[in-house]
Amino acid sequence: MTDMGGAEQRSTAQAVATRLWNSRWLLAAGIVAVLTVYGFADMSLYVVLLVCAGLLLAAAMLPAGVARHSAEDAAAIEAGGLQQLSGEYLAAAVADPLIIFDRTATIVHANAAALAAFGGIAPGMSLSLKFRAPEMQALLDSILSGAAASDVVDYTEKLPVERAYRVSASSVGHDTDLYVLVFKDQSEARRIDRMRADFIANASHELRTPLASISGFIETLRGPARNDPAAREQFLQIMHNQTGRMARLIDDLLSLSRLEMKPYLKPGTEVDLRQTLDSVIDSLGPLARENSVAIERDFAKGPLNVPGDRDELFQVFENLLENACKYGQSGGRVVVTIAHSDDGPEPGIDVTIRDFGPGIPEEHIPRITERFYRVDVENSRTQKGTGLGLSIVKHILTRHNARLSIKSEVGNGAAFTVYLPAH
């Protein structure tokens, strides 16, 4: 009897607790209302406590069906709202191309994204005739035969432009005899993967070449040239040059990596272009004298300030001026110009570094800022280039909302112009 009485008490307590929990929001609203009246009216604290106790008692006595009825009403409202949404509306809300088809692989509906991606599709058309690739045929067979409730394949659409998709197929609901195809565009991800693979391959090649040279000279020094002081000195100098080349390449790779990891520039910082270009020209004075190149200045009057990072812009102009001194050496001079510009969407400043050397053939200009791209491989390596300088320039200018334009004519030198917005 004692156990039965205890069980009944626990059951009653659980029921009361459940009722209080189900009525918690109503109870909270009532208590807030009472406290509000108490705050603004001349009411006894005893009365307030009595009313709150009454609210608790009423909530504890509230039939459980009320809360259940409320939940059922919410479910009914949700079901009614979803019934108002047709499959067409739901398909239109999907950003990716989506096609609904039936058991005969006939298109029932295609959303706007699918119409844009695969022109010429319409309800009543056969999917098997539209997508003839073996992987798509296998996907449709797998779903329609019931071998799989859902499946995924990779598919490439060739026309009008090549696009790579991850295609998922699944049945719609239960016993509807309808199925859905969703095409997730993977083209950009594939392009980035190819760029990453190419970059790693190029970087590996650039490092392997001097490393192989050093390894070969070490073998020679340990063998035939062991007792030849003249050969030993020559080989050690070559090895020193090759290690310097690897060090420059690694520095540029790290520089690119740091730039890619940096957040976009914070507003509020300004760079004095006049002072920055003067510093760059002074720092490259020894290189210019070594190459018998005279650097001329043509700076506009007045303030020449732009938003940006001083160290990064210094690196941009240092790379451009160093290239002009090295590859435009035969012209004998380089002109650095700073001028106000009204050509862009907003007022800005143009910095142009012009050499009078052999120039750049027109077919190379569109690709000259690509990583490891060289117009003349042998000349670039002779000048201790890494093939990354202009890539770094382009990356920094992108962060500054700036742009680089290149004009060149074979035999008449090249002009690299950096446009920087003034605000």
TrEMBL record:
- Please give the organism: Mesorhizobium prunaredense
Where does it localize? Cell membrane
Q: Single GO cellular component annotation?
A: plasma membrane
Renumbered to this chain, the signal peptide range is none
Q: Which branch of life, at top level?
A: Bacteria
Annotated protein name in UniProt: histidine kinase
Enzyme class comes to transferase
Q: Where is the Histidine kinase domain?
A: 202-423
The EC designation for this entry is: 2.7.13.3
The record, for InterPro entries, names: BphY/WalK/GraS-like, HATPase_C_sf, HATPase_dom, His_kinase_dom, HisK_dim/P_dom, HisK_dim/P_sf, Sig_transdc_His_kin-like_C
Name the GO terms of the biological process aspect.
Answer: cellular response to phosphate starvation
Keyword annotations from UniProtKB, A to Z: ATP-binding, Cell membrane, Kinase, Membrane, Nucleotide-binding, Phosphoprotein, Transferase, Transmembrane, Transmembrane helix, Two-component regulatory system
The Gene Ontology terms for molecular function here are:
ATP binding; phosphoprotein phosphatase activity; phosphorelay sensor kinase activity
Q: Which SUPFAM superfamilies match?
A: ATPase domain of HSP90 chaperone/DNA topoisomerase II/histidine kinase, Homodimeric domain of signal transducing histidine kinase
Per its record, the protein catalyses: ATP + protein L-histidine = ADP + protein N-phospho-L-histidine
> Which residue ranges run through the membrane?
21-40, 46-67
Looking up SMART domains in the UniProt record yields: HATPase_c (SM00387), HisKA (SM00388)
